[in-house]
Amino acid sequence: SGVLVAGQHYIEVAKDLSDLEEVVRGLSDRLGQMIADRAFVEIASRKKYRYSGFAERLVSDIESEIAKKYSSRNFVASSRYAHLVLAWLKFRILISKGLFGAWQLPNLLKLKLISMFSN
User: pTM above the 0.70 mark?
Assistant: First the structure.
C-alpha cells in the first residue's frame, strides 16, 4: 500500500534470505536505530495506522451507511440500530484484545439493549 518504504522504514532482505548475513553485517546499531525511529515517528505513532484508528474508521463507515439507508422518518429506529451495531463492534474489539472474557458479552449486550430501548 506504499506506507512502508524499503531503506527508510525497514531493511529489505531477499525472499530466499540469501543475503541475510550480509544485511546483518552491514547494519550498524546506529543505522538500525535510525530506521526504527523513523518508522515509529512516520508510521507507528500515527493514529491512522493503529488498530484503534482502524476501528474508528470502521465504526464511522458503518454509521454513515446506516444513515444513508434509513430515511429521516425512521431516524429513531435507525439511531437505535446504529447504537446496537456500534456496541456490538466495541464488544468484539474488547474481546479480540482480551480485555474481558466472552462469557461477559451476553450480560453486557443485554444491559446495552435495555438502556437503548428503555427511553
Answer: no
